[in-house]
Design goal:
Pnp Oxidase, Chain A, alpha+beta, seven-stranded antiparallel beta sheet, single chain
């Protein structure tokens, strides 16, 4: 099995996308893309790559398409620090791979698909928001995708304090 054309093309475009996300024109891509900085678990090298994300209130959620052909997310099977650049602001957080057998995986995947319907199509899933993910669709997604939950303590604290102010 080989990586899809989309994976190969996106890998070649990563430097261009990263430059755009760091530029004043970042607003063109920032609503759905951010940069993550990962330290290789074996090499110790630092990589910065663009990833699609969903802001899911308490976390930033990354659904990694064609996950068997990508390596960066494997650094977070046991959780660990991650750098994030979102809307030209750099911060750090904690990343953790979400088990595809967990209820959290289902809940966050359905949330992603409901907010942006095209995401389900990227994963080859005909998602019905009224029904949610079927067991077969969940199995299909788990075989093709990985989910990484990124929590940023400062961001969560800021949201919590702004909610208290509104109360």
């Amino acid at each position: 099995m080989r990586p899809s054309r989309l994976v190969r093309a996106s890998t070649r475009l990563n430097p261009l996308v990263a430059a755009l996300l760091r530029s004043p024109l970042h607003r063109l891509l920032s609503p759905g893309l951010m940069l993550v900085t990962v330290t290789g678990r074996r090499s110790g090298r630092t990589y910065t790559i663009p990833v699609g994300y969903l802001d899911d209130n308490d976390a930033l959620v990354v659904l990694v398409n064609d996950a068997p052909f990508k390596q960066w997310w494997r650094n977070y099977l046991d959780g660990g620090p991650i750098g994030v650049e979102l809307r030209r602001k750099r911060t750090s957080g904690h990343a953790q791979v979400v088990s595809p057998e967990s209820e959290e995986f289902r809940r966050r995947a359905e949330s992603s698909f409901r907010r942006a319907r095209f995401i389900a199509r990227i994963f080859g899933i005909d998602f019905d928001p009224k029904r949610g993910l079927t067991a077969a669709q969940l199995q299909q997604l788990a075989a093709r995708a990985a989910m990484v939950r990124i929590t940023i303590p400062d961001r969560l604290a800021a949201r919590t304090s702004s909610r208290r102010e509104l109360s």
